[in-house]
Write a structure and sequence with these properties.
The chain is of the alpha/beta class and about 675 residues long. The chain is built from 16 helices and 36 strands. Among the domains are: about 100 residues, Nucleotidyltransferase, domain 5, CATH 3.30.420.40; about 140 residues, Dna Topoisomerase Vi A Subunit, Chain: A, domain 2 (3-Layer(aba) Sandwich); about 90 residues, no CATH class; about 110 residues, Dna Ligase, domain 1, CATH 3.30.1490.
Length: about 675
């Protein structure tokens, strides 16, 4: 079986999840190992070694390793901003301070909103002489001596990461490229990101912020990715090591380290891909994903099994303009802390116990109640998790909840049930962001629940939203790792080109699209992708003349060059209608803002085996489980591995498996399909 095992690793805040799939037999092997915050590569290698031991294989059997991570996102959320500087064009020193006038939704007006901390304080921003016009023409030559002097001042002030964002460099990158060369020669240990490389697109503030986020995470991501790659090579030679991006595609570890901003939300992206693949097997096309990890919940709405990308993402009020799967995140996960708010109300999250010290019941020093502890107190969990590796201390959690519930004269059980209810409300709010707030009725979709804590509360979340169907894939605790195995190599390219749509610009538009396509073909060839497996997708950001924001529309693959611009203009009216509820087709002129190309290199995907049929579902055991409003009830406990295709179970019951627990309430029933998906349906009264 040499070279037949594909291994994928998803690094989360609490656990690192690993899946190995045998390309010959289709056998699936899953493991979890605690994440290592200081050096994620250590947990990655430990997880790979564990899955190889489980498969009875060695490193020579590994075909490739695919990796997704929340490392970059966590660095942003935890404000690891020390040592970052910024070089801007003379006269633009206050670029970050001015930012935008817009106030985030929910604040009403600017009196109630405080701007988030600037990634780079004003005293670490330096101006350099030199100026380009909007079309890229040189108005004033770059002052190279001033560049070196400004960089030296910043390095002397403790800067070890430097972003460069010069005016109009998206139209002409030569000044920024020269700055990069000067810095590389004079300060070889300085990490540098150029906006013309990170985001060659107009809007100075967003371009600067995306560049700074890139350079902020560059030393951390590049260091641990290099270390992991070296260790893998030491064990198995020139092993392909691919990294998931936020757009749902993978690139080489080297490419990811050069532009790590594309790794933001890479872990959740894998989960969405895994959910789509599971829904495909179940014959379901419209889904809402519920990915509940240790720290947060990520949700996405998928129609026709097709991911929708966005170029307008915000991570904790910081804009990031790189293509990402449209995912909403809320700070409610299994490790989220329960606490008493200033007005005496019960709160859950966004702070988390993380991997260390973790929930109280994990026996790692945790002392504050979490969602996981609440579930343990209510009998949702067995005596141990993760295949017996994690023995729970449920009594310690119960004692803390007894004290916690005293704030409201509640028993430990009712306090724990209240924590789960508040956690559900937070997850419901996340789903409403991607559904009802965008004109979609969640009741028309199937909820796909995964992550370590997703299936725990999925039925209650569905009840809140009027959803009647929940799908829990096989190995839900490792689904994000599975999603890494069903992706392709993807690269995204963009050029700003502000022109009104007319036949006169067709030749220019086609030439730019062709240039971006050649770049994509060359870079995918460098990654070892066969030209016959490359697909190129054209799109454009467009708007009505006079609008301040644009929508992205794609050109159907195979559309002749002469017809591409006309096709994208027609598609724009339809997309504007879908997004905003109206269009001005035939009434208002349309203009292009950005031209885009996505280069996709199709990878071979593993074929999975189904599950055997079993008409009867045999209970593994029974235990008391607490239900709010009904109290303690003696419930049937099933092992997921014992449930074959066609078997049916009725709630209330609990289904246990490695890495996750599925709770089926009294008014729900579940069946197993031929691919091993557990599909819950709400029973009609």
């Amino acid at each position: 079986m040499a070279g037949s095992l594909r291994v994928s690793v998803d690094t989360g805040g609490t656990f690192t999840d690993v899946i190995g799939i045998d390309g010959v037999s289709g056998a699936v092997h899953v493991v979890k190992t605690p994440s290592d915050r200081e050096d994620p590569s250590r947990a990655l290698l430990t997880g790979v070694e564990k899955v190889l031991a489980l498969a009875g294989a060695d490193f020579d059997s590994v075909e490739m390793v695919v990796h997704g991570t929340t490392t970059a996102t966590n660095a942003v959320l935890e404000h690891e901003f020390d040592g970052i500087g910024l070089l801007v064009t003379e006269g633009f020193r206050h670029l970050l301070e001015i930012a935008r006038q817009s106030v985030p939704d929910g604040y009403g007006n600017s009196f109630f909103w405080v701007k988030p901390p600037r990634i780079v304080p004003l005293h670490l921003v330096r101006e350099v002489p030199g100026r380009l016009t909007f079309d890229g023409a040189v108005h004033r030559e770059l002052d190279e001596a001033a560049v070196l002097a400004a960089a030296k001042e910043l390095v002397d002030a403790g800067v070890n990461r430097l972003g460069v964002c010069l005016l109009h460099s998206y139209a002409n990158p030569e000044h920024e490229r020269r700055v990069g060369e000067l810095l590389g020669e004079a300060f070889p240990d300085l990490f540098v990101s150029l906006s013309s490389t990170v985001l060659p697109e107009y809007r100075e503030y967003e371009r600067a912020m995306t560049t700074l986020l890139d350079v902020m995470v560059k030393p951390y991501c590049r260091t641990y990715l290099d270390r992991a790659h070296q260790e893998l090579r030491a064990r198995s030679g020139d092993l392909p090591f691919l990294i998931m991006q936020s757009n749902g595609g993978v690139v080489s570890a080297q490419a990811a380290g050069e532009k790590p901003v594309t790794m933001l939300l890479s872990g959740p992206a894998g989960g969405v891909l895994g959910a789509i693949e599971s829904a495909r097997g179940a014959g379901i096309s419209d889904i809402i994903t519920l990915d509940v990890g240790g720290t947060s919940t990520d949700v996405a709405l998928i129609e026709d099994l097709t991911i929708r990308l966005t170029n307008e993402t915000v991570i904790e009020n910081y804009p990031v303009k790189v293509p990402m799967i449209d995912i909403a995140t809320v700070g409610t996960g299994g490790g989220s802390l329960a606490w008493v708010g200033p007005n005496g109300a019960l709160k859950v999250g966004p702070k988390s116990a993380g991997a260390v010290p973790g929930p109280i019941c994990y026996r790692r020093g945790g002392t504050r109640p979490t969602v996981t502890d609440a579930a343990a107190v209510l009998g949702r969990f067995p005596a141990s998790l993760v295949g017996g590796d994690l023995v729970l201390d449920i009594e310690s959690a119960r004692a803390v909840f007894a004290e916690f519930g005293a704030h409201w004269d509640l028993s430990a059980e009712d306090a724990a049930a209240g924590v789960l209810e508040v956690a559900v409300a937070g997850q419901v709010a996340g789903i409403r962001q991607v559904s009802t707030l965008k004109g979609r009725d969640p009741g028309a979709y199937t909820l796909v629940a995964f992550g370590g804590a997703g299936p725990l509360l999925a039925a209650e979340v569905a009840d809140f939203l009027g959803m009647t169907s929940v799908l829990v894939p096989p190995n839900p605790g490792n689904l994000s790792a599975f999603g890494l195995q069903v992706t392709d190599v993807k690269r995204d390219y963009v050029r700003t080109f502000v022109r009104q749509v007319s036949p006169e610009v067709t030749a220019e538009v086609t030439a730019l699209w062709n240039e971006l396509e050649r770049l994509g073909q060359d870079e995918l060839a460098d990654e070892g992708v066969n030209a016959a497996r490359v697909e190129l997708v054209r799109s454009a950001d467009m708007r009505y003349v006079g609008e301040g924001y644009e929508v992205t529309v794609s050109v159907p693959v195979g559309t002749p060059d002469a017809e591409s611009l006309a096709a994208v203009a027609v598609a724009f009216h339809d997309e504007h209608e879908r997004v905003y509820g109206f269009s001005y087709a035939g009434k208002q002129d349309v203009e292009i803002v950005n031209l885009r190309v996505q280069a996709v290199g199709r990878l071979h995907r593993p074929e999975l085996t189904g599950v055997t049929e079993s008409a009867a579902a045999e209970p593994a055991s029974r235990r008391p489980v607490y239900w709010r409003g009904a109290g303690w009830r003696d419930c049937v406990i099933y092992r997921r591995a014992d449930l074959g295709a066609g078997s049916r179970i009725d709630g209330p019951c609990v289904v246990e498996e490695y890495g996750a627990t599925v709770v089926v309430p009294a008014d729900w029933a579940a069946t197993i399909d031929s691919f091993g998906n557990l599909i819950m349906k709400r029973r009609l009264a």
